Amino acid sequence: MNWEQLKNQTLDDIVAWAETKPWCQAMADCAQDAEWHSEGDVWTHTKMVCTELTRLDEWSDLSAHQRTSLIFTALFHDAAKPLTSQVDPDTGRITSPKHAVKGEHLVRAVLRELACDLKTREEIARLVRYHGRPAFLLERTEPTHEVVRLSWLVENRLLYLFALADTRGRNTDSMTRPEENLNYWKLLSEESDCYDKQYPFANDHARFLFFQQRHPNLHYVPHEEFSCQVTVMAGLPGSGKDSWLSRNRGDLPVVGLDDIRGELNVDPTDNQGHVVQLARERCREHLRAGRSFAFNATNTMKQTRGRWIDLFTDYNARIEIVYVEPLFNDLLKQNKSRANPVPEQVIRKLAAKCEPPTWAEGHSVNFSTGDS
User: Fold this and answer.
1) For residue 303, which of 29, 60, 81, 101 sits 20 to 30 Å off, Cα-Cα?
2) DSSP designation for 137
3) 357 in Cβ contact with 305 (< 8 Å)
4) Nearest to 211 by CA among 159, 151, 160
5) Are 150 and 358 in contact (CB under 8 A)?
6) Phi/psi at 368 (nearest 5 deg)?
7) Cα 269 vs. chain centroid, distance in angstroms?
8) What CATH homologous superfamily does 228-368 map to?
9) How confident is the model at residue 175 (pLDDT cuts 50, 70, 90)?
10) CA 15, CA 32: separation in Å to the nearest integer?
11) Can you tell me the distance from the alpha carbon of 87 to that of 318, in angstroms, rounded to the nearest whole number?
12) DSSP strand E in the chain: where?
């Protein structure tokens, strides 16, 4: 069953589909801390959350797409607990540190195999990643900044509604986290004009500076005058980054890591120090000249992209990020047709760790399936 077929099934059918999968059986075998989840194992809680979603007063007001996103968020929000759960030897308490982070990667992998469209997949993956944030809003030093930040990563309305279902989807005796705490998320989002839409920054540069922690004032109105624009390409090998550049930014000079590896006769598995050093120097030449250019590399990890973006930002460049990802089977076929194809197992490893860019990273962020 592929994504188009699965998303149109009833909730009962989707749950039945999940129960045939190994990641679901792992949840059924995974115990939880009794103080938070006296209802039992992870899968029992997950099914309760799915049911609570349909009981929300707002459920009937949601679009089919929003309902689908919430149902699959429920299915996967704790799916990584079997990978992260640990028992404190002194107290016997069970914790699952960073299960939301690992859950983001898990759901992304499953939806990729189902051929889920890129936009929907990333929406669900980010909801899984941030599903626990509303409950801890009052613990944040800057709660307003928290809801503003999340409004550009997920929809605060969906995050709030899921948090309600997550809280209700457990035995009442274990509900030590009052719903009033969640309501603060809704109220503050509404007050900040970002409950069902992205927070309205004065301009793209104001948003960029906020996320880069270069100017925390939400009402700051920076002057948008840049020295140049850098188009930062990102995507797995074989995704079609070169083709996208040729079609859409054909007039730009390109600093490409693959090209530099070829010049230096460096294999991708060799030490990349000289490659990166030369790439940085060539980027600086364009930046010092105020010349727009494209930087072409896999850039599939946020931390890796961040190092390059920091360099470009230091020269007052406008950052355009373009992430290219066709359907995974198409990507594998495209890779095999390259002059120097990357081993499939390497691509799969990269895909498992891939972190597509978000609005937190650039002045503009474009997603392409490789055909535009």
Assistant:
1) 81
2) G
3) yes
4) 151
5) no
6) -135, 140
7) 27
8) P-loop containing nucleotide triphosphate hydrolases (3.40.50.300)
9) low
10) 20
11) 48
12) 86-87, 94-95, 228-234, 254-256, 293-296, 317-324, 364-368
Q: Write down the residue that tokens 């107290």 correspond to.
A: 91
The pTM of the full predicted model, rounded to 2 decimals, is 0.94
* Extents of the domains making up the chain: 3-191, 228-368
DSSP per-residue letters across 75-98: HHTTTTHHHH-EE-TTT--EE-TT
Q: List CB contacts of 1: < 8 A, sequence separation 6 or more.
A: 17, 114
Tokens of 10: 């009833």
Q: How far, in Å, CA of 288 to CA of 306, rounded?
A: 20
Nearest to 64 by CA among 106, 2, 4, 129: 4
DSSP 223-292: ----SEEEEEEE--TTS-HHHHHHHHSTTS-EEEHHHHHHHHT--TTS--HHHHHHHHHHHHHHHHTT--
The confidence band for 164, taking pLDDT boundaries of 50, 70 and 90, is very high
Q: Is the pLDDT of residue 172 over 90?
A: no
CB atoms within 10 A of CB 272: 16
Which residues, 6+ apart, have CB-to-CB distance to 215 below 8 Å?
Answer: 206, 209, 222
Q: How big is the CA angle at 31 (ends 25 and 33), to the nearest 5 degrees?
A: 150
